[in-house]
From TrEMBL:
HAMAP family: HisI
UniProt keyword list: Amino-acid biosynthesis, Cytoplasm, Histidine biosynthesis, Hydrolase, Magnesium, Metal-binding, Zinc
Name of the featured protein: Phosphoribosyl-AMP cyclohydrolase
Cofactor note: Binds 1 Mg(2+) ion per subunit. Binds 1 zinc ion per subunit.
Compartments where found: Cytoplasm
Molecular function terms from GO: magnesium ion binding; phosphoribosyl-AMP cyclohydrolase activity; phosphoribosyl-ATP diphosphatase activity; zinc ion binding
Enzyme class name: hydrolase
Keyword set includes Hydrolase: yes
Subunit composition and interactions: Homodimer.
Positions contributing to Zn(2+) binding: 86, 102, 109
Residue ranges constituting the Phosphoribosyl-AMP cyclohydrolase domain according to the UniProt record: 38-111
GO cellular component terms given for this protein: cytoplasm
Cofactor(s) needed for function: Mg(2+); Zn(2+)
């Protein structure tokens, strides 16, 4: 899993850098609209499942287990592209959502903005 910093930053070898809890951040973006849909965490198992199936899997911190997005709702995230940041400790999953991403039924989990100390709806 090792590698020098230059190799990590400029090389072609994927060496994901998980944190102390074994997680890395994954931002989910709609590949058609570029809208940010959600933020989640991936462990090695979730990353491997995502890469092998093409469907987004995450590590559920609250349930402490592998979680396939949409496993109960059917609103899966079909992964079109995985972007890796320079330190290989964060990912952007560019996806085609099969329905609303947020458990509230909203298209995106980011459906509010902070304005003057008050949460206001984001216009879609």
């Amino acid at each position: 899993m090792g590698g020098d910093q230059k190799g990590i930053e400029q090389g072609t070898t994927f060496v994901p850098k998980f944190d102390q809890q074994g997680l890395l951040s994954a931002v989910v973006q709609d590949c058609s609209t570029d809208r940010i849909l959600m933020l989640a965490f991936m462990d090695r198992e979730a990353l491997d499942a995502t890469v092998s199936t093409g469907v987004a899997h995450f590590h559920s911190r609250s349930r402490a287990r592998l979680w396939k997005k949409g496993e109960s709702s059917g609103n899966v995230l079909n992964v079109e592209e995985i972007l890796v940041d320079c330190d290989q400790d964060a990912l952007i999953l560019r996806c085609r959502p099969a329905g609303p991403t947020c458990h509230t039924g909203a298209v995106s989990c980011f459906y509010r903005k902070l304005e003057g100390g008050i949460l206001q709806p984001v216009n879609s």
